[in-house]
Amino acid sequence: MNTSPIHHGTNGESARLAPDLLVRMHELMLQTRLLEERLITMIRQGDGYFWIGGPGEEAFNVPLGLLVHKGEGVAHDYLHLHYRSSGTLLALGAEPIDSLRQMKSVKADPYSGGRNFVGHYSVRTWNVVPISSPIEVQFSMAPGTAIAQKRAGGRGITIVQGGDAGTAEGDFATCLIWASRPGNELPLLMIVTNNKYGISTPYSTQHGEPRISDRGKAFGIKTASIDGNDPEVAYVELKKAMDYVRTERRPFLLEASVSRLYGHSSSSGANFVEGEVDGLARFEAKLVERQILSRTALDEMRARMTQELLVAYQKVKQEPAPDPSSIWEHVFAEKNVVGGGAR
């Protein structure tokens, strides 16, 4: 019996994923989209200070989360993500209500105790390294965990993700260099989700190279550019790239074209942008065409998840803010950490 999630077609037909996996990916994509829309509603109602997220990147970020070897320590995958990674966190198993808690800055926020922006995740037990607001610093940090994994052996890899505008930062070049040193290549998957904008600056006015992935070739790094708005393509190509890094213990640079459906952030209005490819809508049309899900089933799922998020929001509104006395917690090493102490 073929138990692979990937079904390879005949007569030149491209690979298709198993129906149950497609249904699961759609569920997570829809949940991610509705979560982001709820967060935007919260910022407009005064239930937060700032929103930035990833509507339009669900088709790529959900498959990434499903393919991660989740756990703690060097035997598992390390994730150096950015603030548009809600789909990846939900696919890993995060609860949507916790993102609402971070937006509302309540004490129960498990990622920062109500002390950080929404979308700034941190999960030690899943190797999700704290997400930073300054762009692309994660590309300087990622070689550190990859070096530890190279020394330890095994199949754990480091995954680092950022946007196209951030590749102008020196941190991106630093990662290319450290990942590819001859004889010291690292098990590191570098991901650039290219939404064609840096805040309000168009990609076309900043990049002379045809593809960002081409920049890896000068370093001898294997590369690919894919359609990140198609979850089937994203899953198959991510799996190929991750299998290569796991097996060869060498870096891979993957560029995924995605959309930015609600602009850069709440600072630019967070309004729906016409003309962008909506990967979720396109995927739903494919599921209906293949008779995997009906339009009625899709609409019912949307209504159910919308109601669940409304209930979660109403619960979070009643939760307390962090106590002012906790302001210095988790800033310095705690007293019980060897060699450290709160000062």
- How many structural domains? 1
Given the helix and strand composition, which structural class is it? Answer: alpha/beta
Give the CATH level 1 class: Alpha Beta
Strand order within the widest beta sheet: 3-4-5-9-8
Biggest β-sheet strands, sense, barrel: 5 strands, parallel
Question: How many strands in all?
Answer: 9
Average pLDDT works out at: 93
* CATH topology category name: Rossmann fold
Bulk shape? globular
Specify Rg, calculated over alpha carbons. Answer: 20 Å
Topology as H/E string? EEHHEHHHEHEEEEHEHH
Low-confidence runs of at least 5 consecutive residues:
8-13, 338-343
CATH architecture: 3-Layer(aba) Sandwich
Structure explained in plain terms:
This protein has 343 residues and is of the alpha/beta class. The protein has one domain: Rossmann fold (3-Layer(aba) Sandwich). The protein has nine helices and nine strands. It has helices at 19-44, 58-67, 86-92, 96-104, 138-152, 170-179, 231-248, 279-289, 295-316; strands at residues 6-7, 16-17, 78-80, 158-163, 188-194, 197-198, 201-202, 222-227, 252-257. The strands form three sheets. Strands 3-4-5-9-8 form a five-stranded parallel beta sheet, sandwiched between helices. A two-stranded antiparallel ribbon has the order 1-2. 43% of the residues are buried. The model is unreliable at 8-13 and 338-343 (pLDDT under 50).
Any key phrases for this structure?
343 residues, alpha/beta, Rossmann fold, 5-stranded parallel sheet, 9 helices, 9 strands, disordered C terminus
